[in-house]
Design brief:
alpha/beta; 290 residues; 8 helices; 10 strands
Length: 290
């Protein structure tokens, strides 16, 4: 079953991510979406005192009332978002299923736990850049989740107005898993039939040209391959990828990692975070299966 987990914080960006996920899932038999809100009240202690507890001090009573009010407001917002999206889901695909879950806890922990329970094909999250402390927090959550889960993470910039992917840039460093990685991308988006651009940023064009040719030969053995290839030169990998994406009208940038919690070689932690937080298009990050 094609399942998508969507963590939401009720911002405009996360609502856009929901609409993006709806379009991704539309037309896929048995598709199901789960809207997840992780409630964390920063006014509450680690072990909040129940409202029914006797002997609360006046200050504790105030804190308890604030916590309860904030929780009710968050539950209402989740319900409103669900009811807002439901007609859209029905109009796109009458068989598309959608659920919502309200969980207490840290987002970076609960998203991982719900991913284990829900077993999604994708986790779709909004990213907002780092122009403020508040925005940086949610971006940090997305990168933490990315490092800790084996589920592909698809981040959608809050300002993104483009369409669902018809052109996907796969950034290769000529690893052993390129063929299987590209096959995973094709399966994730098979219902969209996208063109895949296999791109490498080179510091040794002569040697890398041979590697790209070998990869092309390996991929030609796959059925129904619709892939193009490019070898680029540039000192700034992130900028080179974004420039190519802009010139070719790319809708989605796909990055892979080789080991859990480690972005190896081309995909080091600073580059991955930079791409997720600042790329003007959605970014897909997943762990290669060696």
């Amino acid at each position: 079953m094609y399942r998508i987990l969507i963590p939401v914080d009720f911002s405009e960006g996360s609502t856009k991510a929901c609409h993006y996920a709806l379009q991704l899932a539309a037309g896929v038999p048995g598709a199901k979406l789960l809207l997840l809100h992780c409630f964390q009240d920063y006014l509450a202690d680690g072990d909040p005192i129940p409202a029914s507890a006797a002997g609360l001090s006046p200050s504790d009573q105030i804190a308890e009332r604030v916590l309860h009010r904030n929780e009710l407001e968050a539950q209402e917002q989740l319900e409103e978002l669900y009811r807002e999206l439901l007609p859209k889901a029905r109009s796109l695909d009458s068989n598309l299923q959608m659920e919502r879950a309200f969980i207490h806890g840290l987002p970076e922990e609960e998203i991982l736990e719900q991913a284990e329970r829900f077993r999604p094909a994708l986790v779709v999250m909004s990213t907002k850049g780092e122009s403020s402390i508040g925005r940086a927090v949610f971006g940090t959550v997305s990168t933490k989740v990315m490092e800790e889960t084996n589920v592909p993470i698809l981040t959608v910039p809050s300002h993104y107005e483009g369409a669902i992917p018809s052109r996907i840039l796969y950034a290769t460093n000529f690893g052993k898993t390129d063929v299987t990685d590209i096959d995973r991308i094709r399966k994730l988006f098979s219902h969209l039939q996208p063109m895949i651009y296999c791109v490498h940023i080179s510091d040794d064009p002569e040697e890398d040209r041979e590697k790209l040719l070998q990869l092309q030969q390996n991929l030609q053995q796959a059925p129904e391959s619709d892939i193009r290839y490019a070898l680029l030169e540039g000192d700034d990998v992130a900028q080179s990828l974004q420039d190519f994406a802009r010139s070719e009208g790319i809708d989605l940038l796909a990055l892979t990692t080789q080991e859990r919690s480690t972005f190896e070689s081309l995909f080091n932690p600073s580059l991955a975070k930079k791409m997720v937080l600042h790329a003007p298009m959605p970014v897909l990050v997943f762990h290669s299966r060696v």
